[in-house]
Amino acid sequence: MDPITAVSFAASILTFINFSHQVVCGTYEIIKSGSTTDNAHVSIVTTDLDEITKALNQRPSGYSKHEEALNTLATECQGVSGELRKLLDRVKTKAGSSKWKSTKVALHSMWKKGEIAELDNRIGKYRSEILLRLVLILDERQVSVQVELNNFQSVSQKRASDAVRQLANLRDDVLEKIESQIQDSNQSLSLELSDQLRLIKDIRNSVDRLLAPLVAPSPDMRVLKQLYFNAIYSREDVMENAGNGTFEWILKDGSSDNEQDTQSDENGDETEDEELASLVDDTKKIQSESRTAFLTWLREENHVFHISGKAGSGKSTLMKFLVDHPQTRVELKKWAGGKQLIFAHFFFWRSGVDQLQRSLSGLYRSILFEILKQCPDLIREVFPEAHAEFSKTGLGGSIDELFFRPADLENGMKLLISKSPFPGYRFCFFIDGLDEYGEDGVDGLDHQNLAKDLEEWATKDDIKILVSSRPHREFQEAFSEDLRIRLHKLTKPDILRFGRTMFREHKCFPKVQHFYKKLATKVVEMSDGVFLWARLAIRSLIMAAWRMTPGRKDAEDYLQRHLENLPRDGLNALYEDLLASINPGDRQKAFKMLLLVAKMKRPRAISLTWLDQLDDPAFPAGYEIQPYTDDEIKERQATAESEVDDFTKGLLEITDSPHEKNNPFFSKDVQFFHRTLRDFVKQSKQLRDFSTEFPDFMGVEARARVLLAELWFAKSKYITFSGYLPIHNLFKRYPCGPSRDAQLDSLERILSYHIQADCSGLPGGRVTFFTSGSGVMPRRGTFMSFIHYMTWDLEDIEYIRRRVSKNPGLLQAKDDLSLIVSASLAWGDESTMLKMFLDLGASPNEQVKLKDSKYETTASAWMIFCAHFATTMISENADMYKYCFCGRLEHFLATGVVDSNCMILIAQGRRPQDDERLPTHHISLQQLVQQLEPANGESLLKMMNGPRKGILTIPKDAWRYFFSSKSDSPSPEPAYHPFEVGMQPPLLPQEDGIDDMSPALQPKFFVHSIKWGNTQLMVSLMKTRYY
Q1: What's the rounded Cα separation, in Å, for the pair 464 and 426?
Q2: b/e 922-931 (16+ beta carbons within 10 angstroms → b)
Q3: What is the dihedral of CA 453, 459, 460, 464, to 10 degrees?
Q4: How many whole angstroms separate alpha carbon 144 and alpha carbon 1000?
Q5: I want to staple 677 with a disulfide (CB 3.0 to 4.6 A). Which of 244, 672, 745, 844 is the partner?
Q6: Span of 282-291, 311-320, 700-709, 770-779 with lowest mean pLDDT
Q7: What is the pLDDT of residues 570-602, one digit of tens each?
Q8: pLDDT at 117
Q9: Cα separation of 430 and 419, whole Å?
Q10: What's 1's DSSP letter?
């Protein structure tokens, strides 16, 4: 029964109860007065009773005991209804008649016997019970209310989407047809043509304003989407949960101290469990002290609590256990008191694919995302400028990414911390793996600064932090010794339980069931509290037992000797021993697997099946593009899993991909058994020696060919942007040369194949200029031109030069694509690509199409650059891009064929994409350069003011001259005010929902249009494709 139905049904019962009470009271009045109303009135009362009783028959189904009680109450009320009906039938008689006298006597008798009073008491009892049951049902169904509201919201959103689509059709289909008919018509109309067109424009703008809030996500959601990143939960998703019973001790009260620890485990007996009891006794005191300190911190204290432990001691497993265990939040709520507990966590991971997993930006994004998701009311306080801009503009009206650069994230974190104490919240952060912060070779000073920041955050009243790390000095010194546990000194009982479980769950268990506990105990003694060493040692024992002949008489002694031969002096020694134990015939492939994973961090499992084919230089480009069937994919992944198990001695493992679980081709990844292995593989002498024997395998070309093979053999429908991203990032680090060029040619070939197959996972994009700071707006799923993509993104000059030399026609603009535009809009700091195109003869005055779904025009590459230059240079990001854009401006001016005499018209408003705003200010391109004062400003102004190259002086420029758009110096209209860089617009009339007192919500200047003589380019409508 849903809550609304429960309330409605309860209301029906209450109506019956209230009416029944009135009937009883009316009957009592009859007895007191000795008179009654006429029969008609009693008949009305009887009819009303019948109608109200009918509502009790419409009972909704009930599932909980309170809902069933509500139905039972309705049944009892129906019984009351029958009694009241009889009572009213007695009253329904004429006063003075013999029947009335007998009825009055009967009623007196009923009253004396207490029957009517008892009926009234029952009615009162029902009233109390119905209210109680209703409260219990509403409390019980609180979650259901939320679910219903969510469902209602989903339905509402669907209906809103339908409304959006219908309104968009109205705008695009109806209005455009009317506009076209009016413009094409030569007939006399009742209104002036311009008035009709203006009226239609008003209708269009009204529809657009109606559509705007429906189409765009809320400002809060836009902020959260910018904070979220794909790998935000990757580390914890791929970690195994703690074994059964492992780490349970840390959350148990002292009253149940070690109760579980001394229990016999499965298949155990009293004698053998004395070993477990002995280990418990050895660690009991330190475990008890550590638990007390930790629980006290959870319940009462602030500051930083530090879990310190050797590599492989289980720190991350414990952190995941604490993050997931409900008791953690129960204890923390005691600390939160009357305030709402807000919990957030982050796992640093240096071996992760995403750089954010080992950076401060990733930490800030994760913590802020978790907090603001739970406390949306804080979003406008933590990111005031972004929230203000998103409140004013729809999606596409601003470049959301610009508000979340690393400095903005750091500032947002500081703003959040500075607001403590919070009136209604208390925050607790769990941060794992502080020593995993930073790239390989990170300076200890960075770790010191991180520890200092965390300690400072935790000094606030409403903030506390749990961290874990290896026992590095910078963390040992930063955090209090009183709030620290050393995990490797506490885990012996847990290691013993875990080891026994590993034996019992393996197929080899029948061979070791009579002595496996002795082996597990010996492993504990040798592990020195390092969980990982113990796990690897038991895996080694299991594999040795698996290879034994069944019934071997010296099995126990054999495995004891095997265990004693394992190195005890740290993980690296054990790793070396495991490498040495690999079968010589398997060693080459096993080493290649380990080196590939070390270089690529988290390659696809299917890539391991190509290791032999990498010996062929023609792989994969020389092979036919033939995507694998789903059955072939499964077969290859099964082969990879089998070879990993057989060849690598458990050092590698196949896991589900956290982002591609439903994508058959990319669903399985291969990774190291533990993150310490990555450092070991890079340092191992065995593997270094192997690398010198196979130098080609260790080069970037081999990795590029592996990533190309993924695109080569995957179906187009399985290609995703995250699947494409690794090869994109690799080519940014690939040294220029013939090898790189060959691989790029192969990349173009396979991308063209997938584009023709209508693959939606590949990148495409456009750039828009209608904001106060222009920028790129990637749009996936659109057609991608490879040569323009290379120009805009990778900036490989020599590769592009070779391509253009072979095909000079590439220099000419085609439709909405231009190499000059791609080079001039590139985000990088270099401008040499643009110079190369201009030196090779590309015309800056060649026309390029600008278009979107409802607007199309043409402009020269020079005009497009001017629009991009102006919108960027009047924005708050001018200093960031001034060097590279002024460098590109110089290359354009150096051609001598571009018209720099242009006037930039500037409008102001809260919504810069609104094309109804009229310009209010002006500034020439020359004046803008003068105010910017760039390093090359003198050269720029000289070229703007000095004589242009003549068509006879430089033959190379002769043909370009005829394509130039020179004009006389523009004469601004006197109504425009002079614009100066950095000036602030005046306040505008207040609008609903806009707080003019907030600095972040003030109106801004934006470029409206640029004029060259009689030619005007409307910048606010311009969208340009860059690849």
Answers
A1: 8
A2: bbbbbbbbbb
A3: 80
A4: 39
A5: 672
A6: 770-779
A7: 778 778 888 888 888 888 999 999 988 888 877
A8: 62
A9: 20
A10: -
What pLDDT shows up at residue 939? 92
Query: What does the angle CA 368 – CA 369 – CA 374 come to, to the nearest 5 degrees?
Result: 100
Say whether pTM exceeds 0.70: no
Paired tokens of 716:
């187009």
Nearest to 291 by CA among 317, 336, 258: 258
What's the CA gap between 494 and 868, in Å, rounded?
62
Quote the pLDDT of residue 396.
56
Q: Which two tokens stand for residue 326?
A: 């409900």
What SS3 state is found at 840? coil
Arithmetic mean of pLDDT, 605-620: 92
Question: Which residues touch 436 (CB under 8 Å, ≥6 apart)?
Answer: 348, 349, 350, 358, 675
Whole-number Å distance between alpha carbons of 149 and 147: 5
Place of tokens 């969208």: 1023
Q: Which amino acid is at 821?
A: V
pLDDT of residue 125: 66
Helix (H) or strand (E) holding 837: helix 832-839
**Contacts with 159 (C-beta within 8 Å, 6 or more apart), sequence order:** none
**549 in Cβ contact with 691 (< 8 Å):** no
Strand order in the sheet with 484-486: 340-347, 425-432, 463-469, 303-308, 484-486
Cα–Cα distance between 641 and 668 in angstroms, integer? 10
**Residue in this structure with the two tokens 């031969």, named with its chain if needed:** 565
**In the predicted model, what is the mean pLDDT of residues 37-45?**
50
User: How far apart (Å, rounded) are the C-alpha atoms in residues 26 and 45?
Assistant: 10
Q: What is the CA radius of gyration of the chain?
A: 39
Is the pLDDT at 263 greater than 50, yes or no? no
Q: Read off the tokens for 514.
A: 């009579």
DSSP annotation of 187 reads: S
Looking at residue 983, its pLDDT comes to: 82
CB 1004, CB 912: distance < 8 Å: yes
Instruction: Give the span between the Cα atoms of 357 and 308, in whole angstroms.
Output: 20
- pLDDT tens-digit readout, 867-881: 989 988 888 777 878
**C-beta separation of 886 from 932 below 8 A:** yes
834 vs 205, 735, 815, 822, 949, CA distance in Å?
39, 21, 19, 9, 20
Q: CA distances (Å), 843 to each of 860, 929, 1014, in order?
A: 9, 23, 22
Beta bridge partners of 654: 670
What pLDDT, on a 0 to 100 scale, did the predictor assign at position 306?
96
Q: What is the mean pLDDT of the chain?
A: 77
Task: Tell me the average pLDDT across 427-450.
Answer: 86
Tokens 């323009």 locate to 788
Amino acid, single-letter form, for residue 688: R
Q: Closest by alpha carbon to 457, among 488, 484, 420, 483?
A: 420
pLDDT band at 282 (very low <50, low <70, confident <90, very high): low
For residue 409, is pLDDT > 90?
yes
